[in-house]
Amino acid sequence: xxxxxxxxxxxxxxxxxxxxxxxxxxxxxxxxxxxxxxxxxxxxxxxxxxxxxxxxxxxxxxxxxxxxxxxxxxxxxxxxxxxxxxxxxxxxxxxxxxxxxxxxxxxxxxxxxxxxxxxxxxxxxxxxxxxxxxxxxxxxxxxxxxxxxxxxxxxxxxxxxx
Length: 162
What we know:
There is one protein chain. With 162 residues, the chain is mainly alpha-helical. The chain has a single domain (5-136), classed as FlgN-like (Methane Monooxygenase Hydroxylase, Chain G, domain 1, Up-down Bundle), CATH 1.20.58. It has four helices and three strands. Strands 2-1-3 form a three-stranded mixed sheet, with no helix packed on it. The relative contact order is 0.12.
């Protein structure tokens, strides 16, 4: 089977443009999720659902991208992608599009880590409030050297054991 490099160029550009569109959507959703997490609004669930839909679409496009590389005889790694780009494109447009997509993927990873940390902080705050509500002022929450929560039935405030 002979692969036409112009067809690969067109298809690769189409896939990267679609991936870029969906990564832009994901970046927007990550920013919205951050705002939601900081403001504690009701839209968190909807944002998470929309984010998951973008991730699933990106997974499908990535599989198509990987298949196009394989069908064209290139490895599914950074070197294979760069070799394919050099092989099928004589202009810098496709390389710039690919570079932009990689940068946006890194931004998504960073945004997801940030939002995950915010979620964990919120979960911790909720756990603290639940402990206060369920224990009243009778329980004292302490933490051992490993950071594990222990409960004393002595009156007192939150303390940290080293």
